Amino acid sequence: MSGEVVGNAPLELSDLINRVLDKGAVIAGSVTISVGDIDLIQLDLTVVLTAIETVRSAERRRRELQGYVNADVPVLSRD
Amino acid sequence: MPTYLYCLGTDRARPPDGLTGVDGAVVHAIHASGFMAWVSDVREKVTPTVDRVKAHDAVCAAAMAAGETPLPIRFGQTFPDDTAVASGLAERESVLRSRLARIAGCVELRLVVRRDDDPRGEAPAADTMDTAGEGLDTPRRADGPGTAFLKRLAGRGRADLAREVRCEEARHAIRSAATSLIVGQHPCESARGISFFPVLVRRADVDAFRMAVAEILRIKAIPLSVLGPFAPYSFAGDA
């Protein structure tokens, strides 16, 4: 296939992490946010992820309406 | 001991003997509220590591190979015990059942554009060159470290946006050319250095879809990778 990357481990790993960490059904449970070995926050996974899904759905709808993302990016001035 | 949940389905498919999941624990099945959930025992905390993420995905892939398309569960969901899993399934039975119906008989394919595929990449683009022929993104000898940093940042931002635009172009082209083969599709997303969009396709149509995509990519010359088939993670949630 044109452009097909076969056996591209970094690409597949990035996609795997995006898919398994960011997607999938949420049933219940909780997650602890830690820094080092110190537990900082205990979060209700359902509540937090539902909120994130809501934001993402809104963003998807916005982008669908917009069509393409704006490619006109500012270029740094030399001044 | 806490229970870790991988996926669930409505058929009676059970994990194959010896299948292991996160941290090498043996996967077993729980039958509750008409669902068959694939789970394993774990220690209390399941922090994400590459090996654990791979193990989670491997169990979902095994479930897909064993029977109907399962509803994949997001990484990291643990319950106090098997009974708590059963309670969780009972509480959300109707919504889970509708999500399973949405993905029934289908798999997820993911079409991915990498940063490395982008010809603008980290290098200066022609339209950002000044009249003296020096790229604005290329640190000059006179540039201080702050200016050089900002130029690199700008170049990276342009590369990311160009990759997103290319991903959207590919998505629209594929949606137009292969509509009859696509059960579901989400807009492009960008994360961790790649842009991608997921497509839900009937199992029987995977080869036909791949061929259709190959033809579109040949005509459009879009560098894209087709990954999968996977359990439909992107279509298992609230989208």
**Helicity level of chain B:** 25-40%
Average predicted local confidence, pLDDT of chain B: 86
Low-confidence stretches of chain B: 117-135
- Give the CA-CA distance, first to last residue of chain A: 46 Å
* Secondary structure tally: strands of chain A: 2
pLDDT averaged residue by residue of chain A = 61
Major sheet of chain B, described briefly?
5 strands, antiparallel
What does this protein look like?
The complex is a heterodimer of chains A (79) and B (239). Chain A is α+β, with helices and mostly antiparallel strands and 79 residues long. Chain A has helices at 9-22, 45-66, and strands at residues 30-35, 38-44. Chain A is flat, with a radius of gyration of 19 Å. Chain B is of the alpha+beta class and 239 residues long. In chain B, helix 4 (145-177) packs across helix 5 (206-220). Chain B is globular. Classes of the chains: A alpha+beta (79), B alpha+beta (239). Chains A and B meet through helix 1, strand 1 and helix 2 of A and helix 1, strand 4, strand 5, helix 2 and strand 6 of B.
Question: What is the element layout, followed by pairings?
Answer:
The complex is a heterodimer of chains A (79) and B (239).
Chain A: H1 9-22, E1 30-35, E2 38-44, H2 45-66
Antiparallel strand pairs in A: 1-2
Chain B: E1 3-9, E2 27-32, E3 35-41, H1 50-66, E4 71-72, E5 78-79, H2 82-91, H3 93-103, E6 106-114, H4 145-177, E7 184-185, E8 189-191, E9 194-202, H5 206-220, E10 225-230
Antiparallel strand pairs in B: 1-3, 1-4, 1-5, 2-3, 6-9, 6-10, 7-9, 8-9
Helix pairs in contact in B: 4-5
Summary keywords:
heterodimer; A: about 80 residues; alpha+beta; two-stranded antiparallel ribbon; 2 helices; 2 strands; about 45% helix; disordered N terminus; disordered C terminus; B: about 240 residues; five-stranded antiparallel sheet; globular
